[in-house]
């Protein structure tokens, strides 16, 4: 049984905080670029020094979607492992620091090329858009750094298992390792395309690039990437939120099973980002669409589990009727309120994902700003509000401080501001998308078209939403700086929930890592081998990047 009073060791706290500093700096810079790109996109503003829409959009996407998320997730995973599987050994901690610095150097290199205007290729860096080689080298360093951190986590977890043979592993540690395995397997795709295709091509060592293969390898990585963002949030939902509200985890086994299902089904589904692309046989697209619907199941299980935890708690406090528990929840506690709003928004956001994945409906929304609306609800609201909710207790826990009532109130206001800003921005993006408004396009490129007049009101709503969100960023940064440096000294709890007494015992098969990674490998091979060989064999003349390997 985990001692809930155990604090994260001071040296481990420093490691986790280093990750959070980078994450919140990325939030500030990426958020500023986000506001500016909304304004430039509207066609009403021009920036000095020739700073353009694509440059700003690249800063925004790379810093927020890749840097903020990855650094926050890794910092949180290290803190969770240290709390639940024991203090990191000096060797593991040193490895983790090496991982951190490799990632940070990579981030700085990539960011510099973007800020110099040498890499306006957006966060998806689709070929044939080409960036400075340092952009790709920086990305490769971020990936390699994260692998080093991942191996440090596996070593730490392995040590716990060895010291506790036959025991069920601590749930937060289990989830951390599962999240990191997902990341490692997923990043093989992006590492392959960056190292084998983009770096040689950007240096001019080869003069062509196979676009379809680069996109396929990117999306092999790109979809599990979104679950790498989501799973740390789910860790907080499953394990932290029950404790914050004063309740219990509904089922340990169900939580572990849902993480296994994410591992199995989040990777062999990348084609659902490529449904409109020629060069992939429709039968393989169909298979991956079916697998995409499978990856919806663990989210439905999560929804069920959260409702169960809320209801069990409410009833234990005397709530009656179908929704009586709702009033018993601690609405004034930002540690609960921010993630809860994330959950609420995940209902329409997830429904949007199901629409995207439905092959015929995808034809309507693909490459429209609807997709941008979808991922602002998922990653920029569900995930981010949960990350903010985690920061409200984790940062003071790590820095030996406490969140004051005033800061808690500000965090509640921040959540409301964020939700309102996103409601404006994302709703208008969804509607404009249905009217055909393109994504990834500056207004100047289509502003004169007859259709564009229909999109203008939505574009104004987006700019209003973007401005409100920027206020939300300032507020959360104020709270972060306060919790890190100025809040009163004191003890803050790292909330780790206990499993309900009535829950079934956790079956040991859920701990059989070889089995699950083996099933994952088989699923990936089934979903990708034949279409990938097809792509190489039918590559256009001159597309050298992979053909020479066959
Ligand atoms: Fe997605 C495109 C399909 C989830 C992020 N997605 C994107 C892109 C991003 C992204 C960034 O199939 C754009 C990439 C680009 O730049 O081109 N997505 C899905 C599906 C899901 C999904 C099926 N996406 C996410 C998540 C993301 C994310 C999560 C980030 C974190 N997505 C797609 C597809 C595309 C796509 C296509 C390509 C579109 C195109 O054509 O380009 C599913 O995982 C969603 C399942 C979710 C649910 C919701 C469960 C609800 C829960 C909350 C419970 C609430 C409670 C509180 C308990 C079924 C768990 C309630 C309390 C009360 C009192 C009511």
TrEMBL record:
PROSITE patterns on file: COX1, COX1_CUB
Signal sequence bounds: none
Entries under Pfam families matching the protein: COX1 (PF00115)
Keywords assigned by UniProt, alphabetized: Electron transport, Heme, Iron, Membrane, Metal-binding, Respiratory chain, Transmembrane, Transmembrane helix, Transport
TM spans (from-to): 20-40, 60-82, 94-115, 135-157, 177-199, 219-241, 253-271, 291-313, 334-355, 375-395, 416-436, 456-485, 515-533
Highest taxon listed in the record's lineage: Bacteria
A molecular function GO annotation: cytochrome-c oxidase activity
Membrane association type: Multi-pass membrane protein
Chief localisation class: membrane
Subcellular location per the Swiss-Prot or TrEMBL entry: Membrane
GO terms under cellular component: membrane
Cytochrome oxidase subunit I profile domain segment(s): 14-550
Listed GO biological process terms: aerobic respiration
Family: Belongs to the heme-copper respiratory oxidase family.
Protein name (Swiss-Prot/TrEMBL): B(O/a)3-type cytochrome-c oxidase subunit 1
Provenance organism: Bacillus timonensis
